[in-house]
Amino acid sequence: MRISSLSRRGGVSVATIKFYLRERLLPPGTLTARNQADYDETHLARIKMIRTLTGIGMMSLSAVREVLAAIDDSCVPQRELYQVLNGALCAQLTASTGAASVVRAQAHVDEFIEGVGWRVGDDAPGRTALAQVVAALRDLGCTSEVEEVFLPYARAAEHLAVRELDAMPPGAPELVTRTVLFEVAFAVMRRMAYEHLMALRDADSPVTDE
């Protein structure tokens, strides 16, 4: 297909496609003339993936570039690809790793992860991201133990991860896009659950005359 057709089917402008080509986010098409090229369904799929990651997934182009490079490397196993994706998703959360409060929380997070029996690398970005969450909660006055707060989350997360991995079709792009989309879906549904329960509790609250 010509770039105009790729633009129409991909839902992005021709200028955006040319930008993706310049930034090597999109592989070049097959040259048919000096300034013309043909594109195929693989280009369309790549554009849809980029739109998903930068749109719903709210990932930066630099993070997307890193993930796409791992996808294109046929030697990268699925677990390593997921680690690249996880690092890209946690990148913005791990900017202040040197804070003393985060360092203190890190030890408790490490104990928690060992306690639930998860085989997570010592340098996994999720450890630092969770430590930052714990440090922020403590700064706001939440003094509960890490296990007390997060054990239900860990159990729910593992249950969902098992279901998702069992239903995951083979292929690197599917792993990336489904992981990102399910993460967004879970966050959105959790917020809707809050809204639902608050509405129920408001309805059950007794009305008093002033």
Which keywords apply here?
2 strands, 210 residues, two-stranded antiparallel sheet, 9 helices, mainly alpha
Describe the overall structure.
With 210 residues, this protein is mainly alpha-helical. The chain is 68% helix and 3% strand. A hairpin with a 2-residue loop joins strand 1 (30-33) and strand 2. Helix 6 crosses helix 7 and helix 6 (100-116) packs across helix 8 (146-167).
SSE blueprint:
Blueprint: H1 3-10, H2 14-22, E1 30-33, E2 36-38, H3 41-54, H4 61-72, H5 78-90, H6 100-116, H7 125-139, H8 146-167, H9 172-204
Antiparallel strand pairs: 1-2
Summarize, please:
The protein is built from 9 helices and 2 strands.
Distance between the termini: 71 Å
Number of strands: 2
Uncertain ranges? none
What value does the Rg take, in angstroms?
A: 22 Å
Helix content: 55-70%
Individual helix count: 9
Q: Provide mean pLDDT, rounded.
A: 90
Q: Strand share of the residues?
A: under 5%
Spatial arrangement of strands, main beta sheet: 1-2
